[in-house]
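Q: Joint fold for the lines below.
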Amino acid sequence: MSALARHAEAALALLVAMVWISPLMFAGWAAFHAPTDAINFNLAAPWTLENFRTAWDGAPWLRYFLNTFLLVTSVLAGQFFLCTLAGFAFAQVEIPGKDVIFVLVLLQLFILPEVLIVENYAVAAQLGLLDSILGIGAPYMASAFGIFLMRQTFKSVPKELDEAARVEGCSTLGVLWRVYVPAARSTYLAYALVSIATHWNNFLWPLIVTNSDTTRPLTVGLSIFAAPENGVDISVISAATIMVIAPLLILFLVFQRQFVQAFLRAGIK
Amino acid sequence: MLRYTTAAAMLAATTAIVNPAQAETELTMYYPIAVGGPLTAVVDGIVAEFEEQNPDISVEAIYAGNYDDTRIKALAALNSGDPAQLAVMFSIDAYDLIEQDLILPFDEVVTSDEEKAWLDSFYPALMANGTIEGQTWGVPFQRSTIVAYYNKDMFREAGLDPENPPKTWDELVETGKALTNDDHYGLMIPSTGYPYWMFQALAIQNGKELMSDDGLTTKFDDEKVVETLDFWKSLSTEHGVMPEGTVEWGTLRQAFLEGETAMMWHSTGNLTAVKNNAEFDFGVAMLPGNERLGSPTGGGNFYIFKDASEEERKAALELIKFMTSPEQAAKWSIATGYMGVSPAAYETEALKAYTAEFPPALVARDQLEHAVAEFSTFETARVREGLNNAIQATLTGEKSAEEALGEAQQSADRLLSNYR
Amino acid sequence: MTMTANATDFYHSERRRRAIHGWLLLTPTLVMLTAFAFYPSIATVWTSLFSRGTRRNPSEFVGLENYARLFEDPTFREVALNNILYAAVTIPISIAIALVMALWANSKIPARGFVRSAYFTPTVLPMIAAANLWLFFYTPGFGVLDQILSLFGAPSVNWLGQPGTALWAVCAVTVWKESGFFMIFYLAALQTIPEDLREAAEIEGASRWTYTRRVVLPLLMPTTLFVLVNALINSVKLIDHLFILTKGGPSNSTKLILYYIWESAFAFFDAPAAAAMTVIVLIVLGAVAALQFRLLDRRIHYQ
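A: Joint structure:
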């Protein structure tokens, strides 16, 4: 291949990269400028933190951060617990009728909680889970994706390790805890990253199930903040948006390599 | 849920035993807001003041987004058994709220002569949407009409008299043409968010109401109404004074402030935000007329939910009385641009001083005399959605006004036939 | 004799013990799945067979009337068509872009780390936040897109305000959001392809294009299947940006099925209509599931 074509390709790759982050760049620009300066790309305009102050005062962001944090951790804890047990059962325990149940579980890959909003809402209401963090997280805890992932990982654990542990007198749960869980560490990491990203960003179901500031996660808080009756202030909204996305963005830029590597090792091909 | 209720009852019982003197009434109020951000602080301030004066009542005020969000959230809370005793919701939600048996007529809560006098103290035009079947279901809080904002600097540049904004449709087109150039449009009328509202204003000006008073009949396919929509469309296609396609409600204020348009029609609820941010000389005027002057009212009313206990109803009424009192109404009006809801509000020192210094704040009130009730029927959300779609389909050139409005009328008839 | 009997007994009781353990392990999951997937699915079907109750007309059994009404509803037809178009546009484009991105991110180009992060960034942004940013790109007149176009003398375009462009504008945001995510899967798969394959191909004198087409793409087939299913599901579920960008307008031109379900249930309070639509979506997803299981089956067998 000619050098020219190679350069052109690299330039194109870079250009696409620029396009891809341009909304973020624009938000970064707008958040630190007065709206008029931001819109007109007035490069000489002074930088300001005023938008952040206005945005920060406009909503209980700390509470939203806390809610999102609680949501993400509780979902993750629930998923780890349920998917570990179920994945282990499907991978290594002899149960009659296992295959049928496994197919039933996999069905959940397609019966999305998002699609079932109407009836899930009724269920959450009956269980007294409306307007609670648990109510936002509960429908996602038994994740078919997670179970499938753990099953695949546990299946690849050598049978000898299992037997050795049993000979030493480990119970079923003991084997799971001492042998399988440590062997699946990278899968857990990969799954955690996917789960955190998903639930940090989830919107529709939290919107439906929350009613008040004490439970609203960041996404719902942001959508309400950004949707006043009579119009929006581009700079303030950019500032709020930057505040909301910063923690996760930083987390993922730091863990980027691990993220891809984790995917690799988890064997999601 | 049963568990919740029991726990709450026990908790309440314990507090009553421990602290019998402070039997607090707790109120939860859902409300939407006009211009976002700082205004939640204004509401919080008013609520705090109320709590100070009424130590036996505590209020949780929950900001829930725009009007649609607020209705959805408040009703969801009711459905799920979460407490909610009152809410500020669209003045036009009354039919649906009655139909779902959720709200209480104020006539049942208002007992003393003083309270009756309070109920009579509001501008009658603002009571229109809340008065149904002879009873009062909603009390005005953040109420508006549509006004025309215009950029006086641009009027001067175009050689027009900045103190003489258009008063008729013909003048509107003419002025619009003079004000349209390569840099900006002459006029923008928003057509997302609340297209039906703007359309209703135009239809009234053209001498036709969109619905009957009982909320059972719409008149979308009336010749005059079709003509109205054709006029709206002609502003962009024929006269070129407005951009083609729809004009976004949410970003229109910014567009006006950026000088993208010389005139905009918008809620008077935007007044304070425009005043604070405009870097040019601007004016506010009543909407022009064709056969007559006119604008629908708009905005939110207070409602009291049926589920509230006797005690809570009383407390809710106290809160509403406080928030609509002349002093608070004046404060709210100055902070937002919404109207003072009663003539007495305009007699307060605060609002007198404010309007003397800033006369545009009086335009919405003066326009009230030409105002009519906002578009509202049974099944209002769906009927309105049909009308909105017809308006947008016409403005974007997908359908003719006659075809689109005909379809909207058909679907409205289908929806309303259950109620006739 | 006795020993064998004992051994068999032991074997049987051990088997039973294990089975009980297995069931115990599965119980929490099955309880949660029943509460939030199986029961609601069945309840949805049930709800869809009743009329909507109001003060005047209490709810009653109406059979398939809700479905009949749905198929007469022009909005539903439009929404279904929108969703099909949305899927047909976003799926192939985002997969193609993801593949190209992965090839770039895996090749030796300058600033590879930056490029990779940039492609990946939209994945971690909440759709609702991203939509706020895009809204200002699309705003006519002073929006970023219009300002850039006006540099080339193009007229102002009302991207979100016209039925002809609005759905495309929404699709663009989806593609932007999705392709970085899919890229990760391709990237992971690409890194498992041994270097020697490429070297061998080079020695054979194969061009890079030939190598990509004949060697890499076939090896990526399983990944493509996985990504495809994900993309299909997303074409139903990824609607958050509609709440900010268009709310389904103008005149329903960007309304997608899940948005309409939400609107029917929570804004119009018409749960039966929403339930009927949900059932239709479930049937479509079920068909996709059946297809996927057949493909998965094959993969599981050779594993």
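Q: Anything notable?
A: Chain A touches chain C through 93 residues (CB under 8 Å). The two ends of chain A are 30 Å apart (CA to CA).
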